[in-house]
Each structure stands twice: as C-alpha cells, then as structure tokens.
C-alpha cells in the first residue's frame, strides 16, 4: 500500500484515504463512516447538508413525506363521493371531469350525429364535453375521477404506499411534478390512441408513472429491481388482458411519462441539476400538452 502524508498533519504518514474526498488522513483524523473512514471536513459538510435537509437530487427534505399523498388521496375520495351522490355514471360532474377526445351527444343507448350542446338538448339527449370540443381541463381532472370502488381503492392504496417513498427521495415539489406530468402523458396517450368517444378516468396513469419512478431509482442505486419488475409486469399484463375495460393507453402513457421525468431528475450530473432539472420536467409536460392539442385540432378539423 502506498503511503502519503495526512492533509491535516503533514508530519503523519498514512495509507488511509477519505472515502468521500479521497484525501489521505491519519488515525487522528479518521472518522468511521458506514463504509470506511471520512475526514473531518467531509463529516462536517455532511452534517451541514443533513441539517439543511437537502435531498440527493435537489429540493428540501419533507418533514411529513406522506402529506402530499394523503392530500391527493383525499381529493380523489371527495370527487368520487361527489360523483356517487350526484348520479354515478349519469352524474354531470362525472361527464365534466372524465376525459374523452371528442364531445358527443347520446341517449341511454346510442351516440347521435349531433355536433353542438344546443342541438343535443333540443332533441332531449345528453351532451358530454370532450377535449376537442373545448374541455381542456379533462386532461388533468380525469386523473382524479373514479366510479368503481375497486378502481379507486386499488389506485389509492398504490398511491399511499409508493407516494411517501418517492417524496422521501425526491422532495415534495418533484414528487408532485412527477405525479401530474405522468397524468398528462397518460391523457396524451388516451386522446391519441383511444376511440374519440371513449370515456376514460382514473389515477392509474399517474400510478404507473410512480411505478416507473420507483424502478429507475432502485436501478440507479443498484437495488434489487426484480420484485419491482415483476410487480410492474403483472400490472402491465393485467392492463392488456383487461383492455376491453382498462385503458392501456392511459397506463402506458403514464409509465412513459414517469420514466422520462424521473430520468431527468436523477441522471443529470450533480452540477447540472439546478440548471436543467425543471426545464427537462417542463419539457415532458409541454410535449404532452402539444400532443393533446395536435390531436384535438385533428379531430376538430
């Protein structure tokens, strides 16, 4: 082993280096770490970083990492109850918040060739707004809209389990950006690849984005990703097996968005994170919105 002199005590030869800065340190300067030894300067820097609550990928450490997930669960639950109390599938609130690419006029059994709410009302049918007919809010509100109790229960359990873990690593703002961007990319896939009059709802796109985030973070930290891959694979398989009543478009669109946002957050070099993280996350959202606008203009034209 090559010997050098301690950077703090030049009269002391040593073969030990700090595990963080790799400067030589003598026995008087060695501070035991979780792996190897660290120098006093790196230990002090680590303590300052911990006190400041800095997270590995930027942002402040959440004092209550479950809070965002609890609020999201609460919003979903309130909207679900409101829909049930106002008519369920026939609720005007449901028709307003769920997403469909094109607005349509329908009776209980048929979609009618009527192009405006006024004409639809004149013949005693029900008009449902769509993204192409001006209901732009649906690209986000559909991610907070549920009908079936099993659907909302599954999504909210997944949110409550995965959300606090992701917020503990990413911080509140980045976790929320991940959630909403995944919902947007899920909506973009829905309006492009679903039939224009198909109604879609649910937080599943955002949930799949969170699954993708957990996978990438585990991979980045050399964790055992096999369990996550199995879990994700089972959910993808269920999506396609049940594609007659499950939106594979929303699920896979959300997964792609979650992977893209997480990659932007965790794989940038440390010195470039402050400059590029938010622009890249914003780019994912902008591309999703641009895709939605392009599809709406295609349908409307």
UniProtKB/TrEMBL annotation:
Annotated gene: gluP
Keyword Transmembrane tagged: yes
Lineage top rank: taxon: Bacteria
Keyword terms, alphabetized: Hydrolase, Membrane, Protease, Transmembrane, Transmembrane helix
Domain (Peptidase S54 rhomboid): residue spans on this chain: 134-266
Gene Ontology CC annotations of this record: membrane
Protein family membership: Belongs to the peptidase S54 family.
Name the record gives this protein: Rhomboid protease gluP
Coiled-coil region list: none
Bilayer topology annotation: Multi-pass membrane protein
Biological process annotations from GO: proteolysis
Record-level Gene Ontology MF annotations: serine-type endopeptidase activity
Top enzyme class: hydrolase
Segments traversing the membrane: 71-88, 143-163, 175-195, 201-219, 228-246, 252-268, 280-300
UniProt-listed InterPro entries: Peptidase_S54_rhomboid_dom (IPR022764), Rhomboid-like_sf (IPR035952), Rhomboid_protease_S54 (IPR050925)
Hydrolase is among the record's keywords: yes
PANTHER family registered for this protein in UniProt: PRESENILIN-ASSOCIATED RHOMBOID-LIKE PROTEIN, MITOCHONDRIAL (PTHR43731:SF14), RHOMBOID PROTEASE (PTHR43731)
Annotated localization: Membrane
Catalytic activity, EC: 3.4.21.105
SUPFAM superfamilies linked: Rhomboid-like
């Amino acid at each position: 082993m090559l010997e050098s002199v301690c950077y703090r005590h030049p009269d002391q030869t040593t073969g030990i280096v700090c595990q963080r800065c790799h400067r030589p340190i003598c026995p008087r300067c060695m501070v035991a770490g979780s792996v190897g030894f660290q120098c006093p300067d790196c230990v002090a820097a680590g303590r300052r970083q911990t006190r400041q609550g800095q997270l590995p990928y930027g942002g402040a450490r959440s004092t209550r990492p479950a809070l965002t997930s609890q609020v999201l669960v609460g919003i979903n639950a309130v909207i679900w109850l409101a829909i049930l109390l106002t008519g369920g599938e026939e609720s005007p609130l449901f028709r307003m918040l769920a997403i469909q690419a094109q607005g349509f006029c329908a009776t209980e059994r048929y979609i009618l060739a009527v192009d405006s709410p006024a004409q639809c009302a004149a013949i005693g049918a029900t008009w449902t707004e769509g993204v192409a007919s001006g209901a732009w809010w649906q690209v986000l509100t559909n991610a907070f809209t549920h009908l079936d109790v099993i659907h909302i229960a599954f999504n909210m359990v997944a949110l409550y389990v995965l959300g606090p873990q992701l917020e503990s690593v990413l911080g509140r703002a980045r976790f929320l950006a991940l959630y909403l961007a995944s919902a947007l990319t899920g909506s973009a896939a829905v309006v492009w690849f679903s039939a224009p009059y198909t109604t879609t709802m649910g937080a599943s796109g955002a949930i799949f984005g969170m699954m993708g985030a957990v996978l990438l973070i585990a991979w980045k930290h050399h964790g055992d990703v096999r369990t996550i891959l199995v879990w994700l694979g089972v959910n993808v398989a269920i999506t396609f097996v049940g594609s007659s009543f499950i939106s594979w478009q929303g699920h896979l669109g959300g997964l792609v968005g979650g992977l893209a946002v997480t990659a932007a957050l965790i794989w940038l070099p440390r010195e470039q994170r402050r400059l590029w993280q938010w622009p890249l996350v914003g780019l994912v959202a902008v591309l999703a919105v641009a895709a939605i606008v392009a599809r709406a203009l295609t349908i409307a034209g």
